[in-house]
Predict the structure.
Amino acid sequence: MFVRSLVEDDSRDSIREFLERDCVTNAFVISRLARWLDRELPLSRLSGEFWIAESAGTIHAVIYIGANLVPTACEERVIDALAARLAQEPRRSSSIVGPEAVVHPLWDQLKSAWGNARAIRSEQPLLIIRSAPLVVPDSEVRAVEPVELSLIFPAAVEMFSEEVGISPLNVDNGASFRSRLAELIVQGRAFAHIEDGCVLFKAEVGIVTPGAAQIQGVWTTPDRRGEGVASAGVAAIVLEALRMSESVSLYVNDFNTSALRVYEKVGFTRHGTLASVLF
């Protein structure tokens, strides 16, 4: 098994075919490689770095290395080869996110080289919906306007802090986080229910590929939780996301039982299980 950098001469068709075997789980990697796969940009113009694991000309894994380290599903011998290669380099990513069956054994082999993790999200159900939601969507949920960035930003910071355990303001005072949110707003992929200048609900479609659009950043103002605001809001986002892709996914921590109940009510079903190691 050989782990190496993806290069321009590699077969786009082979990489695409491998990734699309599970376009839901691999949505992040597909989205990061899309402009190379579509021959719009060379690899040197993409953010992050891409590795592949191969043996006798057969691709066994694709790995994205950037702000996050994201491996595709792969077997034990591939994990061993990937861990051996990664252990030779300093950690560059703030998290490892991927299929549970890959992340745990990969981290077991890397932690002696990379040091302690800040937190481990050991089980994160990956959910999917391909049809209209089972609850009535909130008709007040709409695309956020660029001029509303400052209104949405505090809610986004609160959501991230609740979910990840640290504030995004700790890194460059939140400039990168704010820039990414602004980008999603301009792309028409940030949505909210805003009432009298207050954000009641918000979420974004963070990833869009032909096979899957992934919802992220779901947040309801604390004083309206438990009233059905979240389920109606998520239902509205599902309808918007289904206009972008053939399926809609999201993943959630297994201990967030209230969120899991919301997503089940909306009509999401289990597709797989992810895990995350946070630094």
User: Anything to note?
Assistant: The CA atoms of residues 180 and 206 lie 10 Å apart.
